[in-house]
Each structure stands twice: as structure tokens, then as C-alpha cells.
Automatic annotation (TrEMBL), chain A:
Residues 278-301 are annotated as: Disordered. It comes from Marinilabilia salmonicolor. PANTHER family: SULFATE ADENYLYLTRANSFERASE SUBUNIT 2 (PTHR43196:SF1). The lineage of its organism: Bacteria, Pseudomonadati, Bacteroidota, Bacteroidia, Marinilabiliales. This is Sulfate adenylyltransferase subunit 2. One of its GO terms (molecular function) is ATP binding.
TrEMBL record, chain B:
Keywords: ATP-binding, GTP-binding, Nucleotide-binding, Nucleotidyltransferase, Transferase. It comes from Marinilabilia salmonicolor. This is sulfate adenylyltransferase. InterPro entries: CysN_GTP-bd (IPR041757), CysN_II (IPR044138), CysN_NoDQ_III (IPR044139), G_TR_CS (IPR031157), GTP-eEF1A_C (IPR054696), P-loop_NTPase (IPR027417), Small_GTP-bd (IPR005225), SO4_adenylTrfase_lsu (IPR011779). Residues 11-223 form the Tr-type G domain. One of its GO terms (biological process) is sulfur compound metabolic process.
Length: 301, 425
């Protein structure tokens, strides 16, 4: 690499900052979705870089399923305080209480589907015209074709046939009343890139990402954390193990990894050697081969 | 392998696009690259195995890896640009995977717009077809710096050198008429794996590099224009805070060239000049920045600058051209055909304005590579040369000199769709 070249992480960073600035310039009322997971932590870090020394000129929004690891919420609140950013929190529980959705029941019950309703409601209520998310194209086949600027109709739906071509550095965020965009600034990052970047930038993460002892059980080959709102099926039993999270989502459908990695270098090594994708640990994707795609059409992140 | 020192953080990024006719083996090749570089995880592999069985196949079908959306899976075709990722210790790769159907010129144009390299597949049994000509033409029109012609399915022609050489000279005959800089030829079998990642034992006569070696070693340092500093202003950063009461930074991505603190820059369109006071990237203060970095630039003087303006440096007499009348090679993307004399929104760098299509000079017949001045109806996937008149001056470089400041898109004012991509002549 000569002195006028930058490494792949710096180039991805430059691209993401460009996209985030484009959103701030092209939309009147954008928002950045924040889940407390590593992808949204990185995305928020990039947003701070994009506007420094000014504050990030849009709020964050957390769609709270109520099924969180408590560490995630604490991390979120500390981060907001430290950076002076504003985070709007919307509760899936409210959506249920208002009768707009019925809670799934059974052992595999998850609030993922309802989360979409809460999100779309919030976008409508707050009149957001662009919602940035930390989705990456390497996560799942259906995301491989996703644009940076993803157009949603007035029902918040995604039509794979009606997406705008994106060429060079030119993004088209024009829309009609009532429509909005989802924007994915870290589209081109892989899980490995995210970890390497966190390491390079020394970004602080919730403790969940590092090894800790936790009560877990196995379901369909995936290790799941014990949580108050989880029911065990017959034959499943709790064990104490050394684990860490690869993603942090709804506890009911996010698996954990057996691991003793307690620092970023070890995690990077683990990711490099790993044989299962991140989403492999997500029960919600296993439901059917096209699960992700179906949820995306409906307006899931 | 321990982090910062291991070289892990010292990888380059290379973007490439793949093109080929249906069944040339594109999906198999991509699957092979991902598989051999271990970018395929066990759970994905399991899913593919299951899907292969379901569709009646016996062997694991690597091509299934790259099939995306459900509807397409059912039809058994891919219809859009899909992005794939893999990495070797040297480089991270982004593949813009585009299908080979006749009607999808626009997809290849899209995938090609950001590519450092294009892989064009040719089936060894069929040789050069119209499609090969079209793909090579698009690669040259979009000025992709490196083209790799992969002659695939060599196993089906007994790995014969003559077959490879004949195809090579046929492609050379085409490319000599086009402005392509760097063309390479590799005989491969995507299915068996010959010369993809590992050297083939079946083609001793071939002394060149494998495809993977090329991808890892193509010189991409000069793919961006390094000479002419251009930075379109995207967003003006004004904290107006206690700590930074007077900070006024111009946020943007450097599209080409480089910038030092102290350099004199000119602001377009006003023409005012000033000196660079600071270059910031978050809490880092830089002495120097270059394409493709995103930075915030402060100037010594208070000049009224907003989004759509451009900071430039004059080097070797090169400055952007300022004009309201431009000649453009246009690729039409929309089902609704182009309206002659029609008005569209034009977007180029961070600038936006309206424009009118003054005239269509000719349509490119991309199968024969001849200009047709008589057929001027512009439909989806057509490539035409047009004259545009804009409502205000555009500052640009010719696309051949600068892909980032010489490119534009047209947007339909009623549907908001991106209807065309243009390269300024
Ligand atoms: N014998 C042989 N068959 C190949 C090779 N590459 C691809 N194929 C086969 O050609 C067919 C089409 O391949 P596919 O990758 O789906 O083509 P695509 O339409 O270009 O994506 C499949 O049956 C592949 O197994 C090769 O190198 N040798």
C-alpha cells in the first residue's frame, strides 16, 4: 500500500460517513436506529465522526422489545450521557397494550414481528422520513441486493422489484409524501470488518460481547440464554457455561456462543476461525429459508 | 495473528463485477471463490445442501449460494445486482454480481460504476458471443480500470490451448477498438477449480497467474485520479457550541487528488480562493488528506459555501469544466422510455438541478459496436449519446479523466425514480 492509499477499514469508514452525511443533507427528519448491538454502536460512532465537532444532527431511536439483557440498556444510557446524543425509546409492550398486536405464545414466541409494527408506528408518529439501520449485506442472502438507500412505500413495505439503481456515489432520496427510506450506512461491512474496526478505533462495547458465565440451554443446536420470559421445552436443561454474544438482540431469539474470549484480539481470531454465520445463531431466521425476506417485505429492519 | 501488527488491518479493498451470459458459470465461479477462500460458513453450506437436494441435484450446487430473492429462486434466475464479500489476508473483496440477460444492461452498468475490475466469463465451447462484445463494451464505457477475461469450462474442451488462444485473439480484436487499459486472460474451470484459486494441473501450457492471484495483486493504487483535487461539499458543519463557537467545516468526500493544510483552493461556482486552515477527521487533525477519504475542511477566509459547491485545486492546468451544455453517454434504466425534449432532475456529485434533453445524437448498437443515428427511440437498456442543457452551470471533468466528477444520474420528476445513468463526454 503506498502513502496515498488507506486500508479497507478506513475506506469503509469513509464510505459510511459519506452515506450518513448524505442522509443528513437529503432528508428533513432522519433518525438512526439503535439496538445496543455492535453494528449500531459502530454506526453511531461513524455518525459522530461525520459531524464532529458538531453533535450528531438527528436523534437515535431504540425499539425496545422488553426482552433485553439488562447490560444493553445500561450501556445505551451511559453512551447517550457521555456523547450528549438524544435517544428516543419506543416500547413493543405499548404496541401490545394498545391492542395493535397480539403477543405470540408458545416456547418459540418472539417479539420480532411486533417490533416491525412498533417501528412503523414510531416512524409515522414522529414523521421520520429516513431511518438508518445497521444492516449489512453479508448477513443474509436476502440482504445481498439491498441498496444503501432503500425506498419504502406508504405502508413501510419493501418491494424488491422497485428499488432504485445506485451508481457511483450518487444516492437518490426523493420520495412522495408518506413514504420513507431505510438507509444502511454499513452495507458493505462484514462481521469481521466490524470487529476489526472496533479494535482499531478502540470502541467500548457492552460486557456481553466478552466471555462471562451464564446459565444457558440448547435449542435446535443453538445455545440460548436463560431469561425470565423464556420457557424451557421438555428435555432442555440449564447449564452454567462460559459464553459471549455475537449479536445482541431479543433474548428470546438470539443465541450465544461458547467462548472464553475476553478481549477483541481473541474475538477477532475466533471470528476468523468460525464456521457458523452470526445469523446462524438467530432462531428467527431458521423458521424458513425465506424467513428474512418475508419479514423484510413487511418492513422489518 | 494478533490484531494490529498481524497485517490484518492492512488490507486493501478491491471491488469487482462479474459478467457473463446465462450458464457461462458465473454463479459457480463466485461460489468457488467464496468456498475456496472460506467465506462460506457451515450453516450456509447446510442450507445449500438442503436446497440442492430439494431441487433434485445430486452434488452440492455452489451456484445456489449466490441466488437471492425467493421469487428469483423459484424462477431460477437472478435479476438484479447482488453484493458478495470475501477476504484473503491481502485484500477484502466486494463483488457486484450482475446477471447476463440481454435485457439487463442496466444492472451491469450499475455494478460496473464502482468497480476496480470486471471479470467477463466466456464459455470455452461457445467462444466469443454477442454478449461478450456487449460486456466488454460496457466495461470500457464505464472505464473499469482492469478487465479479466475468464475462459471457463476448459474441462469440456479437453483443456486445449488452441481454444483458449483463439478466444483470446477474438477478444483482442474487440478490445483494440475500445478504450480499455488493462486486459488479462485466464483459462479456468469454475466447476473443477482449475486456475481459480489453485493452479491447474491440467493446463501446463498456461504460464500466467491464477484468477485469485490477479485479484490479489492487480495494481489498484492508481485506479482513482490522484492528480486533480476535487471535493464536492456535502454538508456544512457548524457546531455553534461553547467549545467551537466559530468552527465552520465543509464536510465531504475527496473524489480525486489530495489536499494539504496551507494549500490554496478554489470554490466553484463562485470562483473565490482561500487557503486550507484545517483538515479534520473526528478528533484527528490531518496535515494531508486524499481520495477516497471523508473529511471536514476549514478555510482561512469566510466565504459563503453550501452543499453543491465544490472545492478544487488547479494542477497542471486542469480545472473542472463549467458549462450548461453537456454531451453525455446515457444508459436508460426505466421501463418508461425517454421523452425527447423532456425535463429531468440531474444529480452530479452533491449538486442537483434540472435539465432538458436537447437532442439524441445516436444510439449505440452494443452488439455490433456501431452508432445508429436513425433509431433514436430510447428504451430501457439503450445506450445513447445525448445533448443536455442544464438550468445552472455544472462543474465537471470528463468521465474519462475522472469517474467521480464526470458521472451523473437523471431522476424522473413525477415518479422520483432514477431513470438513467450518464457519463459526461
Ligand atoms: N463442466 C463444467 N461445467 C461448468 C463449469 N462452470 C459452470 N458449469 C456448469 O454450467 C452450468 C451453469 O452454471 P452457472 O454457474 O449456474 O451459470 P450462470 O448462469 O452463469 O450463473 C451449471 O450446470 C454448472 O455446473 C465448468 O468450469 N466446467
Amino acid at each position: 500500500m503506498d502513502k496515498y492509499q488507506i486500508n479497507h477499514l478506513k475506506e469503509l469508514e469513509a464510505e459510511s460517513i459519506f452515506v450518513i452525511r448524505e442522509v443528513a443533507a437529503q432528508f428533513e427528519n432522519p433518525v438512526m436506529l439503535f439496538s445496543g448491538g455492535k453494528d449500531s454502536i459502530v454506526m453511531f460512532h461513524l455518525a459522530r465522526k461525520a459531524f464532529w465537532p458538531a453533535k450528531v444532527p438527528f436523534p437515535l431511536m431504540h425499539i425496545d422489545t422488553g426482552h433485553n439483557f439488562p447490560e444493553t440498556i445500561k450501556y445505551r444510557d451511559d453512551l447517550m450521557e457521555k456523547t450528549g446524543a438524544r435517544c428516543i425509546v419506543k416500547y413493543v409492550q405499548d404496541t401490545i397494550d394498545q391492542g395493535k398486536a397480539v403477543e405470540e405464545t408458545g416456547v418459540n414466541a418472539s417479539r420480532n414481528k411486533i417490533q416491525t409494527i412498533t417501528l412503523l408506528d414510531a416512524i409515522e408518529q414522529e414523521k421520520f422520513d429516513a431511518a438508518m439501520g445497521g444492516g449489512r449485506r453479508d448477513e443474509e442472502k436476502a440482504r445481498a441486493k439491498e441498496r444503501f438507500f432503500s425506498h419504502r412505500d406508504e405502508f413501510g413495505q419493501w418491494d424488491p422489484k422497485n428499488q432504485r439503481p445506485e451508481l457511483w456515489n450518487l444516492f437518490n432520496g426523493k420520495k412522495n409524501m408518506g413514504e420513507h427510506f431505510r438507509v444502511f450506512p454499513i452495507s458493505n461491512w462484514t462481521e469481521m470488518d466490524v470487529w476489526q474496526y472496533i479494535y482499531m478505533e478502540e470502541i467500548e462495547l457492552p460486557s456481553l460481547y466478552f466471555t462471562h458465565k451464564r446459565e444457558v440451554f440448547q435449542r435446535d443446536g443453538v445455545w440460548m440464554a436463560k431469561a425470565p420470559f423464556m420457557q424451557l421445552k421438555e428435555g432442555e436443561k440449564l447449564e452454567m457455561r462460559d459464553v459471549r454474544c455475537r449479536t445482541i438482540g431479543d433474548v428470546t431469539c438470539t443465541g450465544v456462543t461458547l467462548s472464553t474470549a475476553n478481549n477483541l484480539q481473541d474475538i477477532i481470531q475466533e471470528v476468523a476461525a468460525t464456521r457458523v454465520t452470526e445469523r446462524g445463531g438467530r432462531a428467527d431466521d431458521k423458521r424458513s429459508e425465506s424467513a428474512m425476506e418475508d419479514r423484510k417485505r413487511e418492513g422489518y429492519f | 495473528m494478533s490484531g494490529k501488527e498481524s497485517g490484518y488491518l492492512d488490507m486493501e479493498l478491491l471491488r469487482f463485477t462479474t459478467a457473463g451470459s446465462v450458464d457461462d458459470g458465473k454463479s459457480t465461479l463466485i461460489g468457488r471463490l467464496l468456498f475456496d477462500s472460506k467465506a462460506i460458513f457451515e450453516d450456509q453450506m447446510e442450507a445449500i445442501e438442503k436446497a440442492s437436494l430439494r431441487s433434485g441435484g445430486e452434488d452440492v450446487n455452489l451456484a445456489l449460494l449466490t441466488d437471492g430473492l425467493k421469487a428469483e429462486r423459484e424462477q431460477g434466475i437472478t435479476i438484479d445486482v447482488a453484493y458478495r464479500y470475501f477476504a484473503t489476508p491481502k485484500r477484502k473483496f466486494i463483488i457486484a454480481d450482475t446477471p447476463g440477460h440481454i435485457q439487463y444492461t442496466r444492472n451491469m452498468v450499475t455494478g460496473a460504476s464502482t468497480a476496480n475490475a470486471a471479470i467477463i466469463l466466456v464459455d470455452a465451447r461457445h467462444g466469443v458471443l454477442e454478449q461478450t462484445r456487449r460486456h466488454t463494451y460496457i466495461a470500457s464505457l464505464l472505464q473499469i480500470p482492469h478487465i479479466i477475461i475468464c475462459v471457463n469450462k476448459m474441462d469440456l474442451v479437453d483443456y486445449k490451448q488452441e481454444v483458449f488462444e483463439e478466444i483470446k485473439s477474438d477478444v483482442e480484436a474487440i478490445s483494440s477498438k475500445l478504450s480499455v487499459k488493462d486486459v488479462r486472460y485466464v483459462p479456468i474451470s469454475a466447476l473443477v477449480g482449475d486456475n481459480v484459486v489453485d493452479r491447474s494441473k491440467n493446463m501446463d501450457w498456461y504460464e500466467g497467474p491464477t484468477l485469485m492471484y490477479l485479484l490479489e495483486n492487480l495494481h489498484i493504487g492508481s485506479d482513482i485520479n490522484r492528480d486533480d483535487f476535487r471535493m464536492p461539499v456535502q454538508y456544512v458543519i457548524r457546531p455553534q457550541s461553547k467549545d467551537y463557537p466559530d468552527y465552520r467545516g465543509y464536510g465531504g468526500r475527496i473524489m480525486s487528488g489530495s489536499l494539504n493544510v496551507g494549500d490554496t483552493v478554489k470554490v466553484l461556482p463562485s470562483g473565490f480562493t482561500s487557503k486550507v486552515k484545517t483538515i479534520d477527521l473526528f478528533t484527528e487533525s490531518l496535515q494531508k488528506a486524499f481520495a477516497p477519504q471523508s473529511v471536514s475542511v476549514q478555510l482561512e477566509d469566510d466565504i459563503d459555501i453550501s452543499r453543491g459547491d465544490m472545492l478544487v485545486k488547479e494542477t497542471n492546468g486542469h480545472e473542472p469544466i463549467v458549462s450548461q451544455d453537456i454531451d453525455v453517454m446515457l444508459c436508460w434504466f426505466n421501463e418508461r422510455k425517454m421523452i425527447p425534449g423532456g425535463k429531468y432532475t440531474l444529480r452530479q456529485t452533491s449538486a442537483e438541478m434540472r435539465c432538458m434533453i436537447k437532442s439524441v445524437d445516436y444510439k449505440m448498437n452494443i452488439n455490433t459496436l456501431e452508432n445508429d443515428p436513425d433509431d433514436l427511440e430510447v428504451n430501457m437498456n439503450d445506450i445513447v449519446r445525448v445533448k443536455l442543457r442544464t438550468t445552472k452551470p455544472l462543474f465537471y471533468d470528463s468521465y474519462n479523466v475522472n469517474r467521480n466528477t464526470g458521472s451523473l444520474v437523471l431522476i424522473d420528476e413525477t415518479t422520483n425514480e432514477t431513470v438513467a445513468a450518464g457519463m459526461i463526454v
